[in-house]
Amino acid sequence: MRTVILRARGLITDFFTRGHTRSLEAKKNILATFLVKGISIAISLVLVPLTINYVNPSQYGIWLTLSSIVAWFSFFDIGFGNGLRNKFAESKAKGSLNKARIYISTTYAALVVIFSGIWLLFFIANFFINWSKVLNAPGEMARELSTLALIVFSFFCLQIILKTINTIFIADQKPAKASLLDMLGQLIALVIIAILTITTKGSLLLLGITLGFAPILVLIISNIWFFRGKFRQFAPSLKYVRFSYAKDLMKLGVKFFILQIAYIIIYEASNIIIAQVCGPKDVTIYNIAFKYFGIATMAFSIIMTPFWSAFTDAFAVKDYNWMKRTYKHLQKVTFLLMAGVLVMLLASGTAYHLWIGDVVTVKTSISVAVALYVIVNIWNSLHSALLNGMGKIRLQLYISMLGTAFNIPLAIVLGRKFGVEGVVMAAVLLNLISMVYSPIQVIRLLNNKAKGIWNA
Question: Could you tell me which residues come within 8 angstroms of residue 258 by beta carbon, excluding any fewer than 6 positions away?
Answer without folding.
Answer: 79, 397, 400, 401
